Amino acid sequence: MYRMYELIKKKRDKKELTSEEIKWIINGYTKGEIPDYQVSALLMAIYFNSLNDRELYEWTNAMIKTGDVIDLSSIKLPKIDKHSTGGVGDKTSFILAPIAAACGIVVPMVSGRGLGHTGGTLDKLESIPGIKTEISNKDFVSILQKHRICLIGQTKNLVPADKKLYALRDVTGTVESIQLICSSIMSKKISEGIDGLVLDVKVGLGAFMKTMKDARSLALTIVNLGKKMNKKVVALITDMNQPLGQNIGNALELIECFDILKGKVVNDLSNLSCELAAHMLVLGKVADNIQTARSKVANSIVSGEALIKMKEMIEAQGGDPCVVDDYTRLPQAKHTKIFIAKQKGIIQEINAEEVGLAAMSLGAGREKVDSKIDHAVGFVLLKKVGDRVNKGDPLLVIHYNDGERIKEVLESVQFRLDRAFKIDKKPVRPPKLIKEIIR
Amino acid sequence: MYRMYELIKKKRDKKELTSEEIKWIINGYTKGEIPDYQVSALLMAIYFNSLNDRELYEWTNAMIKTGDVIDLSSIKLPKIDKHSTGGVGDKTSFILAPIAAACGIVVPMVSGRGLGHTGGTLDKLESIPGIKTEISNKDFVSILQKHRICLIGQTKNLVPADKKLYALRDVTGTVESIQLICSSIMSKKISEGIDGLVLDVKVGLGAFMKTMKDARSLALTIVNLGKKMNKKVVALITDMNQPLGQNIGNALELIECFDILKGKVVNDLSNLSCELAAHMLVLGKVADNIQTARSKVANSIVSGEALIKMKEMIEAQGGDPCVVDDYTRLPQAKHTKIFIAKQKGIIQEINAEEVGLAAMSLGAGREKVDSKIDHAVGFVLLKKVGDRVNKGDPLLVIHYNDGERIKEVLESVQFRLDRAFKIDKKPVRPPKLIKEIIR
Questions:
Q1: Are A86 and A179 members of one domain?
Q2: Which of A26, A111, A154, A433 has the most other CB atoms within 10 Å of its CB?
């Protein structure tokens, strides 16, 4: 019908692709009728010449149509999800999802695994003994009907086009196209059956988007795409220069979330999670405005309802809900080691990417797709940017297990951490957490 | 050693590739160790961000080293070739090669087949009964030693990297990169063992380069690359708005060349061929300057020496040399049909691409790589741009054979020819043949 090399040339020469051409490409590639080498050339041309709003809408729609859209029409409550572009120590899902569910929002959350310096929501959840993340569409819907919250991995037929395209982009230097990122996120989220989406666009040293310009461009593109798709989307651009919260590593991160849901810990992580949850409440119209939403969110913690939702979800997905009260039931590292300040001063920077890579090398994350994860290991940050320290003060606790080459690994971890922490005499303000809201 | 996706990103982000990286890419791809889908993404990134002079030099060198360089060191005479970027009716090789050989230049010519609207030198040559174009390197050298002229197809191990890269570029919209074009031409020409190269860069409606800007950029890039490679290169930018010469189609084109070598025909084709040959003589230092070269070229025709060289070459390659004197020994079409002027006026334009596509549909060229060619069919142009015609005057003779759907084919041929010829009242000058010389 079409000749692929002519469509590649069209995009290369900054011409628009028609709706029919886009459908032909996405379907043909998903079915294996168009070879990888032609699609990768097209993706690179898109990286350079981008897709306009119409093309992006049609590209995303075509992707969605290659798979099943989960039918949540039997659930009458508002269905709102959150997506984060990923950061180090980013675990807001485990806080905002039970809060939103407690406040009357249905949260149908389909998550991925981690790769590289950022952890994956699914990996963190799987720290809980017995928990299942591979759940059929039918069970997913019935858990949502009963508990309003369910957190699963990608089902087999969820946007097959995205699985193929993402794998190809990953090895061809075409991940970093704003339009391709947006189509990947939105196609998956819409296939979950949502009404609205709160997007957390991370910006900074530990994030995919390093500059405000890029973060803003991504946020604007996805908000516009959401409008075209008839979905309510709001994007918050938030700081990812230092790790979010105190704990990094799968089980350790869950513990911090449980503490926050218990009202025991208040920090940057709890603040951001509550704010994202409040936006979910507004999108879902269970609160008239952001102020009302914020007080509902706060109430859900004080009343213990959010914590109950967390336990309900764990139990519904086959996990041991007692982990919430007894952290010894979670994987625990055998050893700890204190990492101390080499000099006196004020912490200027904690490079999130370096900390993330250090955690990965410890076993908390994956270097390759098939790497195994140690759910117990990670870091507990004792200080954050702006804190004053003396030489020798503990900055962080390393949780680690024995293993081959553990000495080498610990050395490289400490080397990375040395690079991550910048201490100087000049006063510094902690970074502003929420930088911009785009809707 | 390297990660291909990181090298793709490097080029994508306008960074320079190192010499080692380039060698790794070219070797890895030629050996099949780097997949097509990564190379096509890199080629598209090169299309957008180009290669600088150093990168292009190293890219070309790495390509050359994937195959054999023909050793012509036993031949002490200057070895000069010509390359054309391709046009309709472009058959200068059959005129300039015997002329240059007659004047003391060794012409080791490795040519390709045609695809699309432009014909291939090899296809034209193969109109001659018995001629062989697949010749071993050893025989190629011995024919050159004896006759100074040999015209063959690509040998098996001539730049294997180019064979793979060209095939990939062809289907991924990455043919049109100036740097990739130059590396492809130069790697093949240098592997022939040449000392110098005259490049005929065609520009206009029937050429690959449609604008002077693009043609100039290609010419400059290849001249600079030649300097880096220690080869003498001169580039002539020449007109390809109307077909070159009078005959289009394989055997028909040979006949026009024989007529020119006999001194019977003088036209744009003979003028250009002689000028290109004169530049070959200057590069090879068998003439001190272009004026002397031009008179040597003219003498080689008048004396009949160039024609003798043509016969020698045909015989040495197993062909029937009598075709030069008796054209009935060449394939002849069964039928002819006159195409006439629909109105009175002056010919403003003969769109070379349309004429080329018409000839292709008649069977003179290949639509696909595996299409079969009819060597007899084609056109004889009776009028050229600037000529005055009356309504009903013959413009062109169509030579055709019977075949399935021949009626349909002839209709579409005439439809294309109608579009190709623009006749109007306003006076028009024939286009300037040689537009610019770059050295």
A1: yes
A2: A26
